[in-house]
UniProtKB/TrEMBL annotation, chains A, B:
GO MF assignments: nucleotidyltransferase activity
Xref: InterPro entries: GMPP_N, ManC/GMP-like_b-helix, Mannose-6P_isomerase_type2, NTP_transferase_dom, Nucleotide-diphossugar_trans
Domain of life: Bacteria
Gene3D superfamilies membership: Spore Coat Polysaccharide Biosynthesis Protein SpsA, Chain A
Domain Nucleotidyl transferase positions: 19-304
Taxonomic source organism: Zhihengliuella alba
Descriptive protein name: Mannose-1-phosphate guanylyltransferase
Amino acid sequence: MSSLSLFLMTTDILERFYGVIPAGGVGTRLWPLSRAAAPKFLHDLTGSGSTLIRATYDRLSPLAGERIMVVTGTAHRAAVCEQLPEISDANLVLESEPKDSAAAIGLAAAILHRRDPETIMGSFAADQVVGPLEVFLEAVREAVVTAATGKIVTIGIRPTLPSTGFGYIRQGGRLGIEGAPSATDVAEFVEKPSEEVARRYVASGDYLWNAGMFVAPTSLMLQHLEANEPALYAGLCEIADAWDGPERDQVAARVWPTLPKIAIDYAVAEPAAAAGDVAMVPGTFTWDDVGDFAALGRLNPAAENSKLKVIGEGARVYSDNASGVVVSDSKRVIALIGIDDVVVVDTPDALLVTTQEHAQQVKQAVEALKASGAVDVL
Amino acid sequence: MSSLSLFLMTTDILERFYGVIPAGGVGTRLWPLSRAAAPKFLHDLTGSGSTLIRATYDRLSPLAGERIMVVTGTAHRAAVCEQLPEISDANLVLESEPKDSAAAIGLAAAILHRRDPETIMGSFAADQVVGPLEVFLEAVREAVVTAATGKIVTIGIRPTLPSTGFGYIRQGGRLGIEGAPSATDVAEFVEKPSEEVARRYVASGDYLWNAGMFVAPTSLMLQHLEANEPALYAGLCEIADAWDGPERDQVAARVWPTLPKIAIDYAVAEPAAAAGDVAMVPGTFTWDDVGDFAALGRLNPAAENSKLKVIGEGARVYSDNASGVVVSDSKRVIALIGIDDVVVVDTPDALLVTTQEHAQQVKQAVEALKASGAVDVL
């Protein structure tokens, strides 16, 4: 194929692309900054000036224009519309209660499929940090071209450390797709490993992080959803059939609460991989899911002559021989003296003090606070 | 002397006793709990239910009744009157600006001396923690009896650790005063020692902490003040002469700002000791000047099954594997995870995070905040 005709073909394919942004998770490990009423994706966690959801939208729009759908909780409607004033009512899917990723992404697939059965959707979580833009877009372009050959394509992330917090994807052979030179088969998805296993994975060069980024024809997504989760599929079809008509709210209110909760990985990705329908495009961009406050420390620079990362507009922090991360979501003066690797998160009604090493345990603290009835700050 | 006549003599002497409570220091090392507008003596730092100044007053009243004078800043008038509703206007001496302890205690001495030249005054700082009451009162009784023989009497504290934060008093020979069997001479006052020297002091058994508690005839206090600080003495006399008349405010406003700042130790105690006019009564009660947050940790019990001391009414603290001190002066939820020997002080407009080891350095932080213009939280 000539490069001109490849360009034309690719352009046609890219016009089928539709971005989907599931904005569901609270980000419990980022409590008390992130919480039910103000989840992670509504915060600017990198000092970029944009909230994570705004940055996610802006990252997709060079490819998708305004063909971007957001799936979020009804409670976040106003905040999401404030962040994304250009989003149309048709592209804002509201969940009355959280039903995990298969329902959220599956409903987007079913709605988009009814609008245009040729759609290639790309699902990118609202609360991740990615850069640089061009490297990301090139990976998505390859993923779309690969998806057009009839594949569910996951973008795997080249690991930078032996993380035990992510699942991994073992890379198979190259697919040799024109316009998608780095696309490969997926040999298998593997669950979060032990540290020893993670080290082996990273050393081998064959394993990439599963960042939960999927690009696929809506038809293929739905086909696997039907095969693996027929009840979920049937419910989503019922809602999607009514979505663009006058019965939307009534049908959604009746059916959504009955849907089973299951992750998209189990409902679609893993069985589809076993059936040989999943490909991978490696992402060489930097990627962080900002899973805890230690991540926040990694993502933010320290001020000059300081070992302390300070996050928050108008923060008033005095430090003497202190290192770690301070998140200031209040206007209070914060003084840190002679303390290392500390994490201090200061909000108007709740304060967290821990260490970078214990950042993952914030989740248990939130569960304990919930159990103790301190729901006003969760 | 028969024990009856000793009792009668002692009773006569004790009727000359007048308590004086200098309530001056801000307690900078207890920032942000203690600050200019709410100094240390206005806080309940031991969970007793009483502020330190109220507890100091209650400790003296079994001996002094309402013969207790308070010297404090004009800014604290309302707060002190709220704490001590029984105090008369005659017994509340207000300083328009801080002039150190010689001026504060010297003015009390000069006023009381004019009211009754037989007065034996006892000066006890408003921000110390002392117990048990009976042991304290017995030491004060002995000090008053000793003072009546023509001595300035300091109550030395039997040291419980080789502190480098206090001055020490070297004990001389027993004085053999009837009714004051434990009174001794003072060999010398010594400045805050190095840790090695402090260890030697404590091991020797001859050195006691200088807690700044003085009991003395007002006449003798004023005599030494006149000899050592004639300008200060003259100014204090001018104010005291006008104090109980219509010119009080006018004279005080004119003279007080001109007075030299000097500590009572240098202006009276040390030169008087050199002249052989100072005696000591050892105090075997427990004593703490609550000098920093590490002291606050020592003075408060941890909750059951916890290594964390929590101070503050209605504190909402969640801790997981944390030890140290939390002072909650706000209604916020505070979560501490996996952090040891931490000090967290949470107030509505300022937060301190440090360690018990670095508790003394809070003073420098306050100075730095002052220099940076953050005076709203000081």
